[in-house]
Batch of 2 targets.
Target 1
Amino acid sequence: MKKIAVYGATGSVGSQALDVVRRCRGLLEVELLSCCSRLQELAAAANEFRPPRLVVTGENVNREDLLTALDYEPRIFWGEQALTDSLTGLPADLVLNAVSGIAGLPLLAACLEAHVPTALSNKESIVAGADVIRTLWEQTGTPLYPVDSEHAAIYECLGDSFDASEAAVLWLTASGGPFLDVPADQMAHASREEALAHPTWNMGPKITVDSATMANKGLEVIEARYLFGMEPDQIRIVIQPGSLVHSMVQFRDTTVLAQIGLPDMRVPIERALLGRDAGEKPVGRPLDFWEVGSIGFRRPDLGKFPCIALAYEALREKETAVFNAADDEAVALFLAGRIELGAIPELIERALAEFRGEVPSSVEEIMRLDSAVRTFTRSLA
Ligand code: NDP
Ligand code: MG
């Protein structure tokens, strides 16, 4: 039995992770579940999996709602600090960091420092954490397992390793999102519903909007740079509309390894949680190549998706924390109906210009910069 803690249990990745636990009975035991404010969803999962610890980070929640919905008495950690406080004495073999947003950064740093192996879904912590997290990871040697499907695919193509020294290019695949074939001016005025209608993946709202603007692929380029240590020009984006090819590694000898399968986040989640020890019945459905026919690739349109070039710029200028915060805030403004979709890259560009040259050197400095960038970005709306 592997003991796991699921941070962000009520989200898209968290709930799919619980589905993996359900299907791998006897292999995984849940020690902790966390949410921000969706107490009923947390209580339902807690009553099913009965972890001894629960974490609720939201400040404006009615604690009674959770207590009355629970049919047992776990230890509950409340408030913003609870994510990291709950790690003390936690008897977990592995943490799944599937919280959304910058909240994942202090949690990742604490897991690395405490040598708690981590299945990492929260990409913001790598993107904003950049060299600070990379250094901490190298110093502590804490095992990480990528969950983001592209990075999980690359990790597998490298032989379950982050050593990309034999690789020439990492090809990150992208679906292209719902606006792949929509003209740029029409996309700029798209509604919330249109932006949330992803063609191949069912994910949380923030990452779904990021997929529509392709800022998500920008974040993933940065994520790949810090996970695999590749230079920015060795990381390329290619569109594969059906999301069947999850990513590819082109080696120096020109051969290419690709990881291919139906789009199902439970597959990389299961791999990150269990390695190659998954149960007899894998969670994914097998791909039938007779049905697939052809798999097409396309070059991304950088004019239509300016967030991609902005992400590379942020990487070169060591402004990845600024890119992350400005994008997160801009997406929140779009989802709240305060800006148009087309304004997201404009706000990111202005934030990158405003904070040029500010390179944080600790998690605390990143968190301060993150909040300054958010205030600035909001002021533009
Ligand atoms: P969701 O929005 O669906 O879920 C987020 C989870 O984090 C929920 O449990 C939520 O609690 C919790 N949460 C939200 N804010 C905070 C906070 N400030 N502090 C602590 N917990 C918080 O997100 P996803 O599952 O889509 O994404 C999670 C992470 O995984 C993101 O970093 C995303 O980029 C990454 N990812 C997601 C993929 C996907 O398929 N969804 C694919 C690849 C990566 P509550 O429910 O109470 O709000
Ligand atoms: Mg991804």
Target 2
Amino acid sequence: MSRRRRIYDCKAKVLFEGPEPGTLVQYFKDDATAFNNQKKGTITGKGVLNNRISEYLMVKLGEIGIPTHFVRRLNMREQLVREVEIIPLEVVIRNVAAGSLAKRLGIAEGTQLPRSIIEYYYKSDELGDPMVSEEHITAFNWAMPQDLDEMLALSLRINDFLTGLLLGVGLRLVDFKLEFGRLYENEEMRIVLADEISPDNCRLWDVKTGEKLDKDRFRRDLGNVEEAYQEVARRLGILPEGGPRDMKGPSTMQ
Ligand code: TMP
């Protein structure tokens, strides 16, 4: 058992106190939940793969000037990140109708949207993450109007970049969820991308076959869940050295 102080325990990750002030260690679990914790399970090797996939995508985003909380990967299941004040919103960017949008508006899953659509959800497990508008966000001070503008601009740049990157490896970026945080540095505040980007919070479909290669395989009991995460990592060229057998990784924290 680690003696490091646990700062935050969420469904798929644990945040520990980092080695230096202003840093945290983000530990990726194999645990998976869906439908606000009603469905629970384990996806063997998911933590190792999501750690790599999120590292890869955050580094690439950093290279095009998107500020992120990511510092470096520490080991199979952990990465060092900057400590930020999380803005209590889930920002969902959609390119293709799927999931809750398809259901709520009665649009056939797979319909290309006329343009990218951004939605905001208020992060609250008790309330089941309700969808909110910019009016709610600014009226209740979850974010200032200029913070929202910044999040929107970053989300659209991230969407454009990731859509292209993933298309290059035969994946259609259907939709995804982002979280942002406030980073305080030299009396200044910057909005940075936080959390993770992985098949846990993206919908990724094979361009040719339409096969789902993301957490929907777990949510909808489609089978081959582990294989889907491995396939995304493989396409990005980042499967762990020992291949799928190496995926459990050292369980140093738990
Ligand atoms: P939705 O269609 O269920 O609203 O999901 C939209 C996208 O957001 C999808 O890529 C999955 C992701 N997502 C999360 O990462 N966390 C969540 O709690 C939910 C509901 C969705």
